[in-house]
Amino acid sequence: MSRKFLFVLILSTTALAACAPQQARLVSAAQTAKPTWAFEASDVPVEEDYKFGKLDNGLRYVIRSNAMPQGQALVRMVVNVGSLDEADDERGYAHYVEHMAFNGSTNVPEGEMIKLLERQGLAFGADTNASTGFERTEYKLDLPRNDPALLDTALMLMRETASELTISEAAVARERGVILSEKRDRNTFALRNFEDQMQFLHPQARYASRLPIGTEETLNAATAERLRAFWRREYVPAQTTLLVVGDFPVEAVEAAIKARFADWRPAPAEPQPLAGPFDPKAGPREDIFLDQALSERVTVSRDGPWLDEPDTLAQRRENLLRQIGYGIVNRRLLRRTREANAPFRGAGVGTSDSFREGRATNMIVETVDGGWKRGLQAATEEYRRALEYGFTQAEVAEQIANARTSARNAAASESTRSHGTLLGAVLALVTDDIVPDKPSRSLERLEAFIPEITPDKVLAALKRELVPLEQPLIRFQGRREPIGGTEALREAWDAAFKAKVSKPESKAGGAFAYTDFGPAGQVVSDVTEPRYGIRQLRFANGVMLNLKRTDLTKDRVLVRLSLDGGSMLATRDKPLAVQMMAVFGQGGLGKHSRDELDSLLAGRTVGVGLGGAAETFAAGATTTPADLELQLQVLAAQLTDPGYRPEGEVLYRQSINNLFAALGATPDSALSGALGGILSDNDPRFSLGKVEDYRKLTFAQLKDSVSDRLAKGAIELALVGDFDEARAIALVAKTLGALPPREATFQPYAEQRERSFTNDRSRRVLRHKGAKDQALLTLHWPTRDGEDLKQAIALDLLERVVQVELTDTLREALGKAYSPGVSANSPRVWRGYGTFALRASVDVKEVATTRAAMRSLLEELRKAPVSADVVQRARAPLLENLDAVLKTNAGWMSLADRVQSKPDGLDRFANSRAIITALTAADLLALARRYLDPDQGLEILVLPEGVEP
Predict the structure, then answer these.
(1) In this structure, what is the dihedral angle of CA atoms 696, 701, 702, 706, given to the nearest 10 degrees?
(2) At what angle do helices 393-412 and 313-337 cross, to 10 degrees?
């Protein structure tokens, strides 16, 4: 199995990209003679409902017919080519080719692929995407309909990418600007920290010089001819796997795949070069990396040889024992973060594969600034305690309970797994040789193995994988250098490693203390809305309950509680009144600390936490029918006996300090810190304010602010999913329905709903501390609130139209920006208040050009109606999103949540399709003329420090 190296995972995302080398290649043993599918050499039974196939040309495919969500499908093409395959002068080519896949092919004219998909309802980015990493490139299409013609279009586009790209010189030149823009946007403190980390840990490794995004030198030198050569060399059938999971017959998909791909000519597949070397004998070294935006962290690492452990039943048992061992160690570390004077903010120990060439054990310790030595000592103590004394039976039992519950939940919902879940399982086969098996069979094996699990076996398994942290590599990152530098790091480690450690203390068990809330409440009203079948009940104490039973996901219940209050309690005089609700759950309960709750709730599918929203305090969770009663007891306990324990305060202050320390590190963080204040003329409710004000906040102040709402505020509870309605009503009656009387309605908060948009439209210039070539140009306008449904939807459609046009202009035509954005916000929270905004991250040298392009676009939008094609490209994804709402429990929850306190929500949903369909280009023209006057837009420009506008 290939569990990716911890730090490699951070970077193998859509954000970074590249491709392959022509030089002599070192090949790992893992890449030599392999079966077509990993399950052919494994005793793990593969799930029968997948259809596996291989064409004569070498292309593999996997098909799974599935109806959750109904009428949709996911299509993926995985090509085993990434930045490891690139020669020194090809760095960035794999990612470049990924971009060129959207820029013209034999049968799809340049610039038409995205448009074609948008007309079919696939939004660019959300439903149409691709990513390139070190080892592979993945193309992704999410189909909103099970239309055979749409499936054929999807497969046609995949085939075009595989073998029919044109890669014209003009397209390469234009896309170069987009890729360089992406590279510029990614050049943040986080990336620089990662680069330093790679070079420190594995200075000789190939992957350390193969960030998928490439280098400016190689990207600027790329030509159409060289990119085509790379593409032809690497994109071959034997390197490619097609995956289709969705609501289509298997036979029809297989026939379509063969029709599209059978005539793709086979070609030799060059083996991928090694990512290493990873030296298990690397001597002790230290490293310090500083940046004002980085929180303090010490990482202790040791490399070891790769453990070639194919996926077998025996290996899965071994992996479970290891999982339990790491789980206990990290549970102990988590417990230390919940001390009133916690030695660290967070810590973890784990071992993962370095590709398929090595493994590494890492201990990571996050501390407050200046606290690294104490944190390292405490974390090392727990690491050594585990290895010297092992684990207790109670600790093992807690981890087993969590593993068992996870397996039971997966088995219970086996017949209603989503496309995404099934796709994820088979992607693990394609990328990591992990055999997809039925959750029910996995559960049977787990139950049979659990009696054999002992603390001694867990410790032995952990030691078999863990690389002892002796003479390790030690890396420090933070805002200021540790006193004593690298020598102090080594000395602190040596001292911690030699210190005496004691046996772990046994933790006494217990029972959840909140099971009796008084006599069960009585239902005083019970009606069912006829169109959508949402049952609406009210208890005598005022609690509202909304029920929607579905069979979309078996054995799952979505729970959402809304309590009157939220940000409405924040006033100009007390703008931070409810800020600490972000850590309310960390304060635990009166009779249980948060740490005790984690142990008490082990093996139960229950969520803990109550957070703040604009109008309410809200708690959301996914539970099971068996755990629904406990989930409701936890919710009731949070309302009646919150703990307000000091560990929550500690966590809050640590988070706030890091937030403010990182402000201005990037253009986005500089804008986010200032935007609310600018738009509101420094209304303190929407302005960030001073860090000192946040540091003064306490749970005592929060208690004063929210106690009345917790005790009296209106409550509306929604349950959606697989449950028995009569039982659910009885359980709510015993918990929330049994509480003392509540207010019957949510408060209007008329004064708090007043919010204004500044009349000062003069240009504002903000400063950031990031790269000197990064600028962020934004334009903002006031619009209106969302009370008028037609106007709100029209603004949403206008947003999509402007997004289409802005992307076509700044990205596709000019190549100035990687991801220009548009946002329309028409909330119903603030009276008369809404916003519309454009943004583009560009080179500082391109600000004037970008501003002119934006202005020209706005003027065109206000001059004449956009084409019918642009309206269709904007409208189709909105309609598909609307049609998808009732295909998931989450979609149903969006209707059931607060359906009693906001009864017009169902009418709004029912009328939305007709409104979207009826809107015309003329309507959008009128809206643009009303709101998007370039001369009335507020420009906020974010520039690097020291760079003039």
Answers:
(1) -150
(2) 120
397-407 pLDDT, tens digit per residue, is 999 999 999 99
pTM of the model: 0.94
Mean pLDDT is lowest, of 224-228, 236-240, 504-508, for: 504-508
Sequence-ordered list of residues with C-beta below 8 angstroms from that of 82, at least 6 positions apart, any chain: 18, 19, 20, 94, 132, 133, 134, 135, 136, 137, 212, 272
Rounded CA separation 794/791 (Å)? 5
Instruction: Provide the β-strand partners of residue 131.
Output: 138
Amino acid at 879: L
- Per this entry, what is the length of the chain? 949
DSSP 589: B
Strands 938-944 and 764-768: parallel
Alpha carbon distance 577, 575 (integer Å): 6
One-letter identity of residue 591:
K
Q: How far apart are CA 74 and CA 153, in angstroms?
A: 13
R_g (Cα) of the chain, nearest Å: 29
Q: Cα(223)–Cα(163) distance, rounded to whole angstroms?
A: 18
Q: Rounded to whole angstroms, how far apart are CA atoms 158 and 75?
A: 9
Q: CA 921 from chain center: how many Å?
A: 35
Closest CA to 768 of 188, 192, 186: 188
At residue 622, the 3 state secondary structure works out as strand
872, amino acid identity: Q
CA neighbor of 346 nearest in space, from 381, 372, 370: 372
Give the β-pairing of 535-539 and 544-549.
antiparallel
pLDDT of the residue at 416:
97
Residue 583 DSSP class: G
CA distance 612 to 610: 7
Burial of 803 (0-12, 13-18, 19+ CB in 10 A): buried
Strand partners, 760: none
State whether residue 838 is helix, strand or coil: strand
Contact 107, 101 (CB under 8 A): no
Cα–Cα distance measured from residue 837 to residue 937, given in angstroms and rounded to the nearest whole number:
9
**Distance between CA 823 and CA 828 in Å, rounded?**
16
**What is the rounded distance in angstroms from the CA atom of residue 176 to the CA atom of residue 95?**
11
Q: Cβ contacts of residue 507 below 8 Å, gap of 6+? A: 392, 394, 599
Q: Kindly give the interhelix angle for 224-234 and 93-100, rounded to the nearest 10 degrees.
A: 90
CB 92 within 8 A of CB 218: yes
Cα–Cα nearest to 689, from 706, 673, 712: 673
What phi and psi values does residue 855 have, to the nearest 5 degrees? Answer: -65, -45
DSSP-assigned states of every residue in 859-909: HHHHHSPPPHHHHHHHHHHHHHHHHHGGGSHHHHHHHHTTTTTSTTHHHHH
User: pLDDT tens-digit profile of 495-550?
Assistant: 999 999 999 887 777 899 999 999 999 999 999 999 999 999 999 999 999 999 99
The residue written with tokens 């606290």 in the block is: 371
CB count in 10 Å sphere of residue 710? 18
Tell me which residue of 725, 919, 902 sits closest to 827, measured CA to CA: 902
pLDDT for 33: 66
3-state helix, strand, coil split of the chain in percent (to 5) is 45, 15, 40
| CA 522/CA 738 separation, integer angstroms | 8
Contact 694, 688 (CB under 8 A): no
Give, rounded to a whole angstrom, the gap between the first and last alpha carbons of the chain: 53
Instruction: Establish how many alpha carbons lie within 13 A of residue 871's alpha carbon, considering only the half-sphere containing its beta carbon.
Output: 16
Query: Which residues have C-beta within 8 Å of that of residue 391, sequence separation ≥ 6?
Result: 325, 328, 455, 458, 459, 504
- How many whole angstroms separate alpha carbon 574 and alpha carbon 467? 52
Q: In DSSP terms, which residues pair with 721 in a beta bridge?
A: 549, 557
CA–CA distances in Å: residue 12 to residues 213, 270, 542 = 11, 21, 51
- Contact, 738 vs 151, CB < 8 A? no
